[in-house]
């Protein structure tokens, strides 16, 4: 159940009550593709860096170790020793990124594993069954993520099929949640809005899926080739047609700037691989912009990554030491930077929630963006 605590323009401050605890929104979900954050972060680390929701990947866990094995081991929460909420994506994005390895039909998608080439079929029912086996808190509906640019006739046909798939997902989840051997009988379902950058298609799709009264709604198919301006425009157009009293999730986004702009447009949930991926390559986020710790100027720098940050890394380690670890190819370098970056994102969401609570989000957003120098903001990917 989603409780809307207050609004500031279109920005929302809420609480989402789930079988695995209450999620304070807006929230950034930390991406652990294979039930682990890339960069050697443990479950204990996630607790320490303020992670509220961990996100795992249905497609990858289906292939390794196998969702049926995870079920035999008690589900994802027990498997990775994590008692807070977990969201699993549907596998749709990964399947549809395998352009040369898949074939789409009304029933679902036939594709080849990127690991060993074996033939696999996944449709709405299969995706729900896999996610039920994983026993995540929130399951995502199986949809087609459309690349941009895309021709309008294709988008229209794809969105129609995605709607039919969503209805099948809802029916199958209802069945699975009623079975005696289902681990999480209160698993929640989020539908996904699609339509590329055609606002009218997006709006019509939003209206249709809203009628299904799901637990939450995502805006998918963005951050896949369009400009930031196009993404913001689509959010401005479509979010008002999604239920305000349900959580709204912008999939695969994004940078600190993207998040601030999207919160202003009514988004509650975010996820992105950037903090962890950038951290593994020595790129770290600070309140003054993004830094590359491999730069020679940090060789003798005895200050923390960000003097204003209270993360476990900044409380103890220097830029010079972390740079040395990267140069020496020590795994600890990646671990420290990923930990800092995720703490930075989780803390920013905490600040956003407080600003909304105190009715000062516009001022907070302005000050936060101004904190990044113009040159630094240009290099945030």
UniProtKB/TrEMBL annotation:
Its cofactor is Zn(2+). Residues 10-370 form the tRNA-guanine(15) transglycosylase-like domain. Residues 252-258, 276-280 are annotated as: RNA binding. Its EC number is 2.4.2.29. Substrate binds at residues 89-93, 143, 194, 221. It is an enzyme of class 2 (transferase). Zn(2+) binds at residues 309, 311, 314, 340. The active site is at 89 (proton acceptor), 271 (nucleophile). It catalyses: 7-aminomethyl-7-carbaguanine + guanosine(34) in tRNA = 7-aminomethyl-7-carbaguanosine(34) in tRNA + guanine. One of its GO terms (cellular component) is cytosol. One of its GO terms (biological process) is tRNA queuosine(34) biosynthetic process. Coiled coil: none annotated. Keywords: Glycosyltransferase, Metal-binding, Queuosine biosynthesis, Transferase, tRNA processing, Zinc. The keyword Metal-binding applies. Pathway: tRNA modification; tRNA-queuosine biosynthesis. Binds 1 zinc ion per subunit. The keyword Protein biosynthesis does not apply. GO terms for molecular function: metal ion binding; tRNA-guanosine(34) queuine transglycosylase activity. Homodimer. Within each dimer, one monomer is responsible for RNA recognition and catalysis, while the other monomer binds to the replacement base PreQ1. Belongs to the queuine tRNA-ribosyltransferase family. Catalyzes the base-exchange of a guanine (G) residue with the queuine precursor 7-aminomethyl-7-deazaguanine (PreQ1) at position 34 (anticodon wobble position) in tRNAs with GU(N) anticodons (tRNA-Asp, -Asn, -His and -Tyr). Catalysis occurs through a double-displacement mechanism. The nucleophile active site attacks the C1' of nucleotide 34 to detach the guanine base from the RNA, forming a covalent enzyme-RNA intermediate. The proton acceptor active site deprotonates the incoming PreQ1, allowing a nucleophilic attack on the C1' of the ribose to form the product. PANTHER family: QUEUINE TRNA-RIBOSYLTRANSFERASE. This is Queuine tRNA-ribosyltransferase. It comes from Anaerotignum neopropionicum.
């Amino acid at each position: 159940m989603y409780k809307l605590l207050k609004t500031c323009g279109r920005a929302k401050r809420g609480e989402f009550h789930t079988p695995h605890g209450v999620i304070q929104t807006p929230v950034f979900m930390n991406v652990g593709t294979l039930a682990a954050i890339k960069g050697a972060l443990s479950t204990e680390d996630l607790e320490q860096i303020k992670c509220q929701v961990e996100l795992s990947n249905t497609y990858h866990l289906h292939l390794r170790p196998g969702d049926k094995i995870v079920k035999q081991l008690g589900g994802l929460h027990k498997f990775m020793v994590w008692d807070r909420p977990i969201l699993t994506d549907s596998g749709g994005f990964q399947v549809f990124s395998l352009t040369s390895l898949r074939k789409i039909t009304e029933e679902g998608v036939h594709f080849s594993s990127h690991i060993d080439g074996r033939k696999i079929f996944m449709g709405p029912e299969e995706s729900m069954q896999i996610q039920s086996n994983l026993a995540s808190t929130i399951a995502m509906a199986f949809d087609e993520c459309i690349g941009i640019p895309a021709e309008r006739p294709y988008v229209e046909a794809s969105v129609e099929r995605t709607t039919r798939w969503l209805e099948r997902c809802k029916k199958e989840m209802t069945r699975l949640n009623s079975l005696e051997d289902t681990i999480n009988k209160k698993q929640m379902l989020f539908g996904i809005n699609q339509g590329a950058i055609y606002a009218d298609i997006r709006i019509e799709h939003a209206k249709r899926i809203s009628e299904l009264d799901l637990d939450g709604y995502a805006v998918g198919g963005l951050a896949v080739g369009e400009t930031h301006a196009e993404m913001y425009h689509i959010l401005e157009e479509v979010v008002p047609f999604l239920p305000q009293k349900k959580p709204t999730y912008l999939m695969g986004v994004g940078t600190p700037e993207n998040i601030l702009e999207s919160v202003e447009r009514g988004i509650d949930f975010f996820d992105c691989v950037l903090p962890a991926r950038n951290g593994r390559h020595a790129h770290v986020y600070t309140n003054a912009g993004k830094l590359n710790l491999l730069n020679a100027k940090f060789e003798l720098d005895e200050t923390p990554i960000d003097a204003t940050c209270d993360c476990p890394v900044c409380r103890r380690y220097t830029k010079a030491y972390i740079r040395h670890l990267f140069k020496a190819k020590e795994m600890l370098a990646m671990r420290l930077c990923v930990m800092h970056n995720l703490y930075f994102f989780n803390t920013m969401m905490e600040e956003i929630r407080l600003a909304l609570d105190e009715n000062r989000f516009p001022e907070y957003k302005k000050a936060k963006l101004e904190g990044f120098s113009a040159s630094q903001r240009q290099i945030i990917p």
